[in-house]
């Protein structure tokens, strides 16, 4: 059902990302998560009132307005009947509002590329209040914490379409320049998180890996920025990807950064869909780049506070590092990690 004409905004929305925009590379300690519901003080009452007003404009009865089972760290999501979703930015910080406006700019662009994502119906920017989106509900179900190989491969194909697009991304999308993790290793040692000997070994290991990376930086592309399981929908029968959700972390970056939000054990399957029949040296180079970002983010997360409210796979400080160890120890494709010889 369409919004009233006066309430609708054009699909080609542009907005500045603003200072508070999340960066998938620069702040791994603040990665988005999936608490079960907005807690006290997170604007739940205001979000409910907004949801009821918007639902009435779309002809949705109040008793069909419910909180979505999964919530984001930067917004409150309501289901409006069977067909619509309302996503309202939290009003207590500028970052969520900027991310929501960026998402409104990105969604029409990626849909034009053929990337499966929910249709944007409205960007609302009420005076003195946080912005909101009205989206058409996409088909599919949550894949749970451990998506299967068919979903991973179809995700890889969707990412290849996104990253390979020739069209320029919206102006609202910020650039995300990744930093060399080696100075961070030195800081961890100075602050007592690593021994001096381990830090020297790790810096040498990063140096050996750096020698295997492309001499010229990869061309920045539009990335989704958070392709963890909570942002995927799957077709129940086939397990294929039906939608990529939440474009608030979209950025211009090295495409290998995209795979740093995939658990290491799943990286080979996603890359198989991404590269198609490509393999051999090209696959090895991709795995080197992905490992560089995974390990850099894992180390940056170590000294940060715990996040007991968040549930995504890399939320807690030690999760990403231990997932790398888990992949090395038991993953059927762990050879891609064991091939990185120590210096």
UniProtKB/TrEMBL annotation:
Keywords: Transferase. Residues 1-45 are annotated as: Disordered. The keyword Transferase applies. Coiled coil: none annotated. GO terms for molecular function: transferase activity. InterPro entries: AGP_Transferase, Aminoglycoside_PTrfase, Kinase-like_dom_sf. The keyword Repeat does not apply. SUPFAM superfamilies: Protein kinase-like (PK-like) (SSF56112). Residues 77-278 form the Aminoglycoside phosphotransferase domain. It comes from the Bacteria. PANTHER family: AMINOGLYCOSIDE PHOSPHOTRANSFERASE DOMAIN-CONTAINING PROTEIN, AMINOGLYCOSIDE PHOSPHOTRANSFERASE-RELATED-RELATED. This is Aminoglycoside phosphotransferase family protein. It comes from Streptomyces hoynatensis.
